[in-house]
Design a protein that fits this description.
By secondary structure, chain A is α/β, with parallel strands linked by helices. Chain A has a single domain, classed as 3-Layer(aba) Sandwich (Glutaredoxin), CATH 3.40.30.10. Chain A contains five helices and seven strands. At the A-B interface, loops of A face helix 3 and helix 4 of B.
Amino acid sequence: MRFLVPMAIFVVLVVVLAVGLKLDPRYVPSPLINKDAPAFTLETLADPKTTLTKQDLLGRPVLVNVWASWCSACRVEHPVLLSMAQNDKVEIIGLNYKDTREAGSELLQAHGNPYRQVLFDPQGKLGLDLGVYGVPETFVLDAKGVIRFKQVGPITPEAWRDQIKPLLAKLATSPAP
Amino acid sequence: MKRLRTALLLCALVGGAQAADTPFRFDQPEQAARYQRLTEELRCLVCQNQNLADSHADLAQDLRNEVYRMITSGQTDRQIVDFMVARYGEFVLYRPPVSPLTWLLWFGPFLLLAGAGGVWWAVARDRGVSAPDATEDAAVAALTRQDKAPS
């Protein structure tokens, strides 16, 4: 009986600390979920004369993947993206973030290109509007251009299978606007 | 005296090195003060325990540029903070607003204080009850007897 109160405090403390250990302090919930994606006008990585705007991403769900040639975690993610594009026919739009045209294009030539289009954002302007703070990051946009999901860090095969793929399936079946 | 002067000089040099990181020019000292205050209150998302003023991360530099741009283009502090919160969430604020989500953060310490006070009170009360204990008195008496006994 005497030890009941200290014991209870101890158990509560252990539970709180255990939960705290499991949390990822680098994960910052995005305030942009369920908000309209920011408008943009950017050149493509392949061709400075071609520009894309937000309108080009509407009408179907797309993934927007923020990457750079200087980002080592992006290399880890790259094979997963290639597999998603090839095996699951996912439309992935790349956002080349604070990179150079040469380095970005070289990487895609050497390792394969999973992107339908690649936006070129050398100053990170769209990155800032999207609240990007750690590359790679991936956004799922629905047909209306609303951000429905954000992955911070590389897409793992598990994250694809358990979170993004089911979400895309759900978005594809929901009635188009 | 000479040593003191050297120490002061070193301090001045260190201070200068910190400020040199952001070579922004403001027309009015009031703007520079606002820049200083805002970058000290906004968190760098990359190195999370540093504010924008301290951080050398690339992203912090971008956000400093943005704060500078917004101040010189005549935006209010409120607008600048809202701009950051809209993109990065309330996590960027070192002093988040009081809302149901941050109640525990703001009032948790007082809760802990109240809990500790409660425990202290309970312990003090228990001591007060058990002090004039018959068995304890007997034990003390036995011990003193032992001490007095010739060995």
